[in-house]
Amino acid sequence: MNWQTCDQLADLVADLGRFSADLSALAERLGLNIAPLSADHISLRCHQNATAQRWRRGLEQCGSLLSETMINGRPICLFRLREPVIVGHWRFLVVELPWPGEKRYPHEGWEHIEIVLPGDPQTLSARALALLSDDGLAQPGIFVKTSAPKGEAERLPNPTLAVTDGKVTIKFHPYSIEEIVASEQP
After folding, report:
1. Fewest C-beta atoms under 10 Å: which of 143, 162, 171, 175?
2. Where are the beta strands (DSSP E) in 13-159?
3. The sheet that has 169-173: what strands, in order across it?
């Protein structure tokens, strides 16, 4: 089954246009040229466990579970789809589905993409910030956050630099999600 024809994911199909437009607008505000960048997965956000469970059932029908792990006290599932989610020039086969946590997001649906910047994890922030214009970063409503989320069995350092306008987020990592998942295997 194609994810776009799955009843449990109808709200995500309807939300993709909004997400794509908001993502393009954020990249433009930041002076970020996304054309040469590799983004390896797209992520959802929801407020209710019932929504996460519905989306999980839908994603299981049109793909396979790649990973399920606890990060920051909540389950996060990764699914490999048979048909990609297309955003701009990217074709995402991996979708991240986190269960709701403490933070309330302004919107349920598509929330961020993750761009892979291969290289030394210690220089990730500097390399990511170098791609963004100073004027873009200084705009009101633009927020930058660094973190280092870690799954229970991850062996690779996975620092993150996230840039958001409160509607959508662009995250940068030094490793692809598949490299992170592979690092969890004994």
Report:
1. 143
2. 38-45, 63-71, 74-87, 90-98, 109-116, 143-147
3. 63-71, 74-87, 90-98, 38-45, 109-116, 169-173, 160-164, 143-147
- Can you tell me the mean pLDDT for 169-173? 96
What SS3 state is found at 146? Answer: strand
* 96: amino acid identity, one letter: E
Work out the average pLDDT over 16-20: 97
pLDDT of residue 152: 54
0.90 exceeded by pTM: yes
pLDDT at 128 over 90: yes
Neighbour tally for 52: CB within 10 Å: 21
Give Cα separations from 158 to 1, 12, 59, 126 (angstroms).
Answer: 33, 27, 25, 15
Identify any residues that bridge with 115 across adjacent strands, giving them in sequence order: 39, 172
Domains annotated for the chain, with CATH where assigned, are 3-183 (3.10.180.10)
